[in-house]
Amino acid sequence: MSDMANPAAGTVKEKKRVSQARRNLETFLANKLAVAGGLVVILFVAMVIMAPLLTPYDPALPDLKSISQPPSPEHIFGTDKIGRDVFARVLYGGRTSIMIGVVSSFMGSLIGIVLGCIGGYFGGKIDAFIVRMSEIFMTFPQMILILILTTFVGKSVFNIIFIFSFTGWMTPSRLIRGKFLTLREETYVSVCRAFGISKFSIMFKHILPNAISPIIVAFSINVAGYILSEAGLSYLGLGVAASVPTWGNILNAAKSVDVILNEWWLWVFPGVVLSLFVLSVNFLGDGLRDVYDPKG
Q1: 118-161: per-residue pLDDT in tens?
Q2: Cα 259 off chain centre by
Q3: DSSP 2
Q4: What does the pLDDT look like over 47-106, one tens digit per residue?
């Protein structure tokens, strides 16, 4: 009998959903670091989106009259060696760095979800092939694999996202596969098969919603990892093109000993912003783990 035919059953289900949502919220709020991390993430994202309202400077426009100026009321983070405003570069660079982290994590999770669903539901040779393929990828340290691929495809935002997605699907795939191996034996799945519901619908409409919670946690943590990876690649000169402002490229311009000793604002402010954002994302991920995976 459907919920429309039985209003009482629908009301009970709605109350259970509200109760579960309330418990999840209370669990998350109990983790003070997660709450603080979430607030910092929201603040940073809002600032990089509203960058044109927060600074009048073009992050790529040199000003030869303002070369290597320390922090001042006019340039609160100072200027670099060709007079570009560091605060503007941090804001606009945050747009690119955060976008790379979010899109890469999303695409990697999407690939992993599809492969994990297929392998976990069908099993057999299909599952064995996907597992072996993930093991081959995981044989190589991810950063080494990223460096190798970067030398072949070149430096650009699109290429970095492609590389991160291509090398980051294994963990989401294994998480989803593990859930599917358990959930495919549940009674509701057998009922769906008995009613002739297509395998595609069973996999993605009935099983996947019950298996997605660990992916939410992995997604948030991977965002922080990819932002750090992009910063590391750009610091080495192997990431995004130097003309594109990212947190890594800003730090790359400040790696000489002379700059470290005499122009501290070129690396302190970008480094603090990068570290604070990544820590906040990790704290947020820990809070989501408490909510969705209390045993983890």
Answers
A1: 999 998 899 999 999 988 888 877 778 788 888 788 778 888 89
A2: 31
A3: -
A4: 999 999 999 999 888 888 888 889 999 999 999 888 899 999 999 999 999 999 999 999
pTM for this one? 0.85
Secondary structure class of 85 (helix, strand, coil): strand
d(Cα 293, Cα 296) in Å, to the nearest integer? 5
Reading the block at residue 148, the tokens are 């190798």
In angstroms, rounded to a whole number, what is the distance separating the alpha carbons of residues 101 and 221?
10
| Integer Cα distance of 191 and 194 in angstroms | 5
Helix axes 7-30, 32-49, angle to 10 degrees: 90
State how far the alpha carbon of 76 is from the alpha carbons of 7, 64, 89, 184, 263, in Å. Answer: 60, 18, 12, 57, 14
Adjacent-strand bridge partners of 85: 79
To the nearest 10 degrees (0 to 180), the angle between helices 7-30 and 265-292 is 140
Q: Which two tokens stand for residue 93?
A: 């660079």
